[in-house]
Amino acid sequence: MKFKLNTWQTIAHFFPFFVASVLMMRLHFGKPVLLIANVLMVFDMALVHAYQVYLANSFNQQQSKPSMFYKFNLFIPLVGLVLYFLDVLRGSIMSPGAIEFGPMRGLRFNWYMDTLYAILIYAGINYFFFNVYFAAKQLKTVTDADKKEELTTNYLGPMRQLVRISLWSLVAGFAISCMADIITLFKM
Which of 6, 16, 138, 164 has the CA that lies 20 to 30 A from 175? Predict the structure, then answer.
């Protein structure tokens, strides 16, 4: 089964991110809206990463000798992101009053959160750098031109497009955040 998205469908993957960004700008709506925005943001991270894991794993399976290290390397960050999503969801539903908002938030540092934050950093590095680099490097070893074109079209191209759109989304989210801060500053 092929699950290849065109450009607008890939951009639609980031719709929860933009909705969360807009909701976070509306601080006067209160904590419930911020909790929903936070859950949407983390859900979108897990969803987009899962799509890239699907593409990268499918690419790995098409190789003559699939790499078990690469497969293992794909699923560790995905598990970390799903655990983080479940932790945010649990915190939002079970104890929404305990979550702090504002410039100085209390952090929960324990072995679980330390490990989870390390996996999240690893997931970001893996998502933006390693997965596409590994697929491009493996593609260079393919000698058949037709197979190389098929792998590029079906897997490497969508992975690069996903990373490119992710970077543009991060820039747009940063710009939205800056605009919200400037608007809030001038309202004072």
Answer: 6
